[in-house]
Amino acid sequence: MRAGVGRVKRPCEPDDVVKCLDTLYRRRRIDLVHARILRIWGERQAAPSPGFASERGDWRLWREALERLEWLLRVKGIVA
Question: Does the reported pTM lie above 0.85?
């Protein structure tokens, strides 16, 4: 497949998101446990559900990380 044919234009590169996560970590806005939860559930391509007791703790950390990441992505113009 030729480059660009049939592909959706990305608003950013995956490295941009990783850099934002690194910034949040260095500023102590997220911990390694937040990054771990994002990785685990990202690999599953699903979000944890607060409806399942076994996922409730992951869901809380997931929401905290995404709320903090969303703010930084908005500031950088990556999301609207």
Answer: no
